[in-house]
Amino acid sequence: MQKLYSDESFRSRKFSFGGIHLSCAHRHNAVMKEKQLTEDEIAKNRHTLRFVKPWMKLRGLTQRKLSEELGMSEPSVSKWLNGKVNMTLAQFTKVAELLNTNPEDLLFDPKEKDKASKYKEAAELAESLDPEAFHAWIAAGKAMRKKE
């Protein structure tokens, strides 16, 4: 069989990406950065994910193992847990699955697992109420809180 390319030209074609050599493609990709979150967004993310670490500890799941199970790098998972990068709902659901719990449970301390079901029950009740009854219910709750 006749050789169509010399070894040198084959090597240069093999390590190119759509006609763009990898050194160019690498520089092009370096321009793409993660979205920089504001301090407020980071604080909200941290607040939302504050109980993921206690759940990990309860289940004996290390950050390294979590990152392996998710097919991600450890620094990426660390950025999630520290609130520096947004986690998608699918990723959050996968984390809950790996921790053998419901996504709603991750919003509460593992020591207070029943709180998630209580909040879910309250939310379902709130959705079923007409607006007037809902506002009366909220007012009654606030009045009870003041008595404590």
Description:
- The protein has 148 residues and is an all-alpha fold.
- The protein is 65% helix and 3% strand.
- The chain has a two-stranded antiparallel sheet with strand order 1-2.
- The longest helix is centred in the last third of the chain and has 17 residues.
- It is elongated, with a radius of gyration of 25 Å.
Order of helices and strands: HEEHHHHHHHH
**CA-CA gap between termini:** 90 Å
Percent of sequence in beta strands: under 5%
Share in helix: 55-70%
Question: TL;DR of this structure?
Answer:
The protein is mainly α and 148 residues long. The chain is built from 9 helices and 2 strands; from the N terminus they run αββαααααααα. A two-stranded antiparallel sheet has the order 1-2.
List keywords for this structure.
148 residues; mainly alpha; two-stranded antiparallel ribbon; disordered N terminus
Secondary structure topology:
Elements: H1 7-14, E1 16-17, E2 20-21, H2 22-31, H3 39-49, H4 52-59, H5 63-70, H6 74-81, H7 89-98, H8 113-128, H9 131-147
Antiparallel strand pairs: 1-2
